[in-house]
Amino acid sequence: MLARVGFLAPLVVYLAVFFGYPLLANQSMALREYTAASFYTGEAPFVGAANYAAVLADPVFGTALSNTALFTVGSLVFQFAIGLALAVFFQRHVPLNGLLRSLLLVPWLLPLVVSGTVWRWIFDQEYGVLNQTLLGLGLIDQGVPWLSSTSMALASVTVANIWVGIPFNMVILYGGLQSIPAHLYEAAALDGAGPWQRFRHVTWPLLRPVSAVVLMLGLVYTLKQFDVIMVLTQGGPANATQTLTTWAHALSFGELDFGLGAAVGNLLIVIALVFALVYLRGLRTQPGAPGSGRRG
Amino acid sequence: MTRVSGNPAHRLRAPSALVAAGLLGLTTACGGGGEDGGEVTSITALDYNLAEPQNGATESMLQECGEQAGVEVEREALPREQLMPRLLQGASQQELPDLMLIDNPDLPQFAATGALLPLEEAGFDTAGYYDSVLQVGTHEDTLYGIASGVNGLALFTNTALLQDAGVEPPATWQELREAADELTRGDTKGFAFSAIGHEEGTWTFEPFMWSNGATLTELDSPEAVEALELWAGMVEDGSVSQSVVNWSQADVNDQFIGGRAAMMINGSWQIPVLAEEDVDYEVVPLPVPEAGGDPATPMGGEVWAIGRNGTEREEKAAEVLRCLLSDDNMTEWAELNAYVPAKEEPAQRLAEDNEQMAPFVESVPTAQARTADLGEDYPDVSAAIADAIQQALAGSGSAEDALAQAQQSVPES
Lengths: 296, 413
Prior knowledge:
The structure holds two protein chains of two kinds. Chain A is mainly α. Chain A has helices at 2-30, 36-41, 50-57, 59-91, 97-104, 106-109, 112-123, 129-136, 153-178, 182-190, 195-223, 227-232, 244-254, 258-285. In chain A, helix 4 (59-91) packs antiparallel against helix 11 (195-223) and helix 11 (195-223) packs antiparallel against helix 14 (258-285). Chain B has two domains: 17-151 and 301-361, 3-Layer(aba) Sandwich (D-Maltodextrin-Binding Protein, domain 2); 153-298 and 374-407, D-Maltodextrin-Binding Protein, domain 2 (3-Layer(aba) Sandwich), CATH 3.40.190. Chain B is 45% helix and 13% strand. Chain B has helices spanning 8-11, 13-24, 54-69, 80-92, 107-111, 131-136, 159-165, 173-183, 199-211, 222-237, 249-257, 270-275, 311-324, 327-337, 344-353, 358-363, 378-393, 399-407; strands at 42-47, 72-77, 99-103, 138-139, 142-143, 145-146, 149-150, 153-158, 189-192, 261-267, 281-284, 302-306, 340-341.
């Protein structure tokens, strides 16, 4: 008994100090009028749910929430689909396989500030590579305001984020593919299964546990994505790319209202938890039989 | 500062400090100072003058003034966006730098904490300073911050491009719009300014509001709407790139240097940057609605403030600050970095010696403190104005609707 407690204690202490305490402190902050002065004087009057009410009543909340959803779902779907396609592609014996795979890792290795800056150049309305190319091909007759119109900006930052996330998906899924025994494919081929059927009935079901991990990590990572948006648009123009994360930052460090910022942060945690629970439940209730994992 | 453990206010401090440290991932720095009770041998200073030549000049001036005051100055310099988190973290631990450089619109927020030393208490002599300069360092009738130099906005024009197009530097809004239109050719836009979604965008827009008679407390006034319509109209005409909504002032300067903008609104601190480049340019006051009107520029620049760290350290910090603000140092700093000295006499001398600086010097007496009407509420309203600008420019709403929405963030008095 004592040994068991001793074994668990470090973990419990670690969780309490590095997860429990900040969570509670952030919750406490969200229930107070916490301004720049509070840091010095220590005085932060308790205001109950006023910060939450203010955040929920703010028109930016709806925008930030739907932007967060669109950004997250859009990023996840495309990162996963493209990552999986590349992983399946590299499963075959392609010349220069190793070299190409390492090159595809580059987006993952670059600091986000660097890749964000590169995407800013690509998307530039006047002299960006993208518009110059499209103009050269005659597909458009004037530059598209990728990052500077409220209707395009969210899609543009999502594309940049997808690019950043593809290597992660590809690498993990590629690892998952390697663990599928080759004889299953041979057996499927003997049964007369074509490439699509082999993917549907062998690859996809056996890749499900790995896919679950990739999507779960991707979800958490994308929900809290901050750098790409900050570098590209800073949440603008006019909140068009404001997500809950960038909004929490703007409230805390732009308007110096840390109570509001903490409230938004807490809402984000709740949303992430809800997604995670729904997702985990969905995984558990689905029978793992081949063919039943049809999604996406 | 004594800690009273029974006081609930103080009990709160420890958690908030830890949250600040945890959330911001900041390293604990600061400290320094003298031994308790002993003689003060070193003081700390914090600023965000990271770009050259400001960086080197700040460093050497602080060291020099430290030597004169008989203390070592431990300087820490951070990017601007990390300054506030760093100061807040310091405040939560009652460990503020002895000397700190704060962007003037942030000063009321900081002064309101009670963490800054009123400069009159330290015996500062304010004779000779521009009233407008003293105003930006004042919160609730008390002087907490004092600038060595200030900056403002003016219109920069590319001489060659204007000559080619046969355009004179514009003085009125009408002329500005026409000039921008005529100067828009090929890859070059006629005009550029920063309309980025935070303070930089707001402060670039404020002179247009103010010179048209609008105030920061009535954002939905016809005068304010007219000013925003001018900006939105030029974007619609195509003489200003829509990308301005993502451009900082440094980005705008890059466009100007690259010949992609024939005119720009920018601050005097770009003059040393422009001097390194091969651009022939002229600086004129910002265009005004009607000929003969006064340009109303917001007062830009940073103020030095002293943290409340006990009498001895405060005294040393004040001594160093007085040295930084001596006429010679003030002038040297201003010349090197293209700021306007905060005192009238050295400023006039600079204007006579340097014609590019003249429009900036001229604008100082009438320059307005951004926080004059709103005080601590300024950051909130500034963010709302930046949003309104972006809505009108990025094509998602009329100037009128955008500003009506921004007005909701103005506290009712």
